[in-house]
Write a structure and sequence with these properties.
binds magnesium ion, Rossmann fold, elongated, Lysin, binds adenosine-5'-triphosphate, 3 domains
Length: about 550
């Protein structure tokens, strides 16, 4: 097989040689002057004129001696086709994949496809002003973006250019946006919890650092809210966050930024924004830029949480690019390598072995489903790539059960081993209890007579359901979850009316945090409930229950 690059290099080298040998510039200068003078003599006899020309030639000669002549070679391509953010170029003999190409309007492009005659380039800016026949220069450089601590608290585009008004970013380094994911040997099992701040997730589908958990649901079912709450929940933790917005409306991005700022987490978050009218290349590159920035923190041995909001739009952007580049469409018109694209991205989320720094990247990709259909091409791909999924249900959402997590269809495959003992000891049977309640409740709704034990099951289930509800952007810390689930599973909520459960929970938390700060601190530090702590918890809960019942009876 012919090595195309080296063959072309050889042709260029011989061409350069030939040019140098035959060049006027290579002719000895004196020879050139004499020759010129002779020609002038032949044509013009006037001595005055001759000396003037001689002077001029000497001047030129001096100037030429002072100037260094070099022959430059550039890989140049011609625009054959341009439009919709993609260009097809001919020429460019030595260009490589992912190489940057400069267009005459100052915009850069990245080579996405190569074949023998053409290179397909995706534009990283506007295609306005580029015309067919324009020359484009290969730069010999691959696309790299700024990474570093300087990006924390900043809003940038997928190329790392600031979009906020906080000035230029002086990054610690630049990195290529593609990197091979860590191999098996460098990885460690997921064994440290990552609190999402959402009770139902932390209790029933717990997440671990280094896990990839898919958030899926129909349009407007609270997907972004869950992911943002997970970021807000890192306010007092050591986890750095990256939020990648793919093709999101400016209004959604503004409200996201407001939420992060109000929650005091913007300073430890990098926000990467690509809008719906950005070139498709930027929308396609956004998640890779996000993970590249997260990898910088990973390499410092830190834990990072990255949210991709959302990968449906990412897949659509890639489909758009691929169709424009006339690649053959596959299932649902997506190109065949879309699975590889997402697998390559999500494999970069990992938990590293302590010998390799011990850092982690936890990924929360989001995917939008149509009418709860999880068998679409992109959702099924992502389910099989990730370590579990949180399924949001539109019916639950419309019924007012928020977060609308369908517990029967949600799973966390690795997070269980990362759940801390204090919480694990309390919530073990709850998942089953909740599923059974949902099942039994469906029958009870038709007015069927139910026996005593089923009625009790329904009552408990209703309290559990009510306890698991949560307002948006109000993450519940670990210690508060332990107290609440302890109260529920030790039957302290049985005498509380279902509609009063949220109020009871609020008051209980302020009571315990105020009166039993020593107990709270020891649970926080030991992360296990020992016999002494359990006894103390029973004491404080009995006291609170008595006070609550007295107060509420008084009110009746
Ligand atoms: N736990 C909750 N309690 C009350 N309201 C909620 C809750 N979670 C989400 N919402 C509300 O539901 C609406 C949709 O939420 P969100 O934007 O998170 O949904 P989404 O699934 O990301 O939507 P999209 O598909 O448009 O991205 C918002 O107005 C939000 O405030
Ligand atoms: Mg959303």
């Amino acid at each position: 097989m012919i090595d195309r690059d080296s063959a072309q290099q050889a042709i260029l080298e011989s061409f350069k040689h030939e040019l140098l040998e035959n060049s006027l510039l290579n002719q000895p200068a004196q020879e050139f002057v004499e020759g010129a003078l002779q020609k002038i003599n032949e044509k013009n006899g006037s001595t005055h004129h001759r000396s003037k020309v001689k002077q001029l030639l000497h001047k030129l000669l001096k100037y030429s001696d002072a100037t260094k002549h070099e022959v430059y070679f550039q890989s140049v391509g011609t625009v054959q086709h341009i439009g919709n953010g993609v260009a097809t170029l001919s020429g460019l003999p030595t260009v490589r994949l992912e190489e940057l190409v400069n267009f005459p309007n100052g915009v850069q492009g990245m080579v996405l496809n190569l074949d023998r005659r053409h290179a397909d380039v995706i534009l990283l800016g506007s295609d306005q002003g580029i015309r067919g026949g324009d020359l484009a220069l290969a730069t010999g450089k691959r696309l790299s973006i700024p990474v570093g601590f300087e990006l924390l608290g900043r809003v940038v585009d997928p190329l790392g250019k600031p979009l906020d008004e906080m000035g230029v970013i002086n990054p610690s380094e630049f990195r290529y946006i593609e990197r091979i994911a860590p191999g098996v040997i460098e990885r460690a099992p997921v064994n440290e919890p990552l609190y999402s701040g959402t009770k139902i997730i932390d209790a029933l589908i717990p997440l671990g650092r280094g896990q990839r958990e898919l958030i899926m649901g129909d349009h407007q079912t609270g997907k972004t809210t869950l992911a943002l709450d997970a970021i807000l929940s890192q306010r007092n933790s050591d986890v750095k966050c990256v939020y990648v917005a793919v093709a999101q409306k400016s209004t959604s991005i503004i409200s996201t930024l407001q939420t992060l700022r109000a929650g005091g987490v913007l300073s430890k978050t990098v926000v990467i924004v690509s809008g719906p009218d950005d070139p498709p290349a930027l929308r396609y590159l956004a998640p890779y830029a996000g993970v590249t920035i997260a990898e910088f923190f990973l390499d410092q041995g830190m834990d990072t949480l990255i949210v991709y909001d959302d990968l449906t739009k990412h897949a659509e952007s890639y489909r758009e690019l691929s169709l424009l580049l006339r690649r053959p469409p596959g299932r649902e018109a997506y190109p065949g390598d879309i699975f590889y694209l997402h697998a390559r991205l999500l494999e970069r989320a990992c938990k590293l072995d302590p010998r390799h720094g011990g850092g982690s990247i936890t990924a929360l990709p989001i995917v939008t489903t149509q009418k709860g259909n999880i068998s679409g091409y992109i959702p099924t791909n992502l389910i099989s790539i990730t370590d579990g999924q949180i399924m949001l249900d539109i019916d639950l959402f419309n019924k007012g059960i928020k977060p609308a997590i369908d517990i029967g269809r949600s799973v966390s495959r690795v997070g269980g081993s990362a759940q801390e003992p204090a919480l694990k000891s309390l919530v073990g049977p709850l998942k089953l209890e909740l599923s059974q309640y949902e099942e039994v409740n469906r029958f009870a709704r038709f007015g069927t007579d139910v026996n005593e034990s089923t009625r009790r099951q329904i009552e408990r289930g209703r309290r559990l359901e009510s306890l698991l509800m949560q307002k948006p952007h109000d993450p519940v810390p670990f210690i508060d979850q332990v107290i609440l689930f302890f109260a529920l599973t030790s039957n302290y909520m049985d005498a509380v009316k279902v509609e009063d459960v949220p109020h009871f929970a609020d008051e209980l938390l302020s009571f315990v945090n105020m009166h039993e700060s020593r107990l709270v601190d020891s649970i926080k530090h030991k992360r296990v409930l020992d016999d002494q702590m359990i006894e103390n918890l029973h004491e404080v809960l009995s006291e609170f229950e008595k006070l609550w019942l007295e107060k509420n009876r008084g009110g009746e």
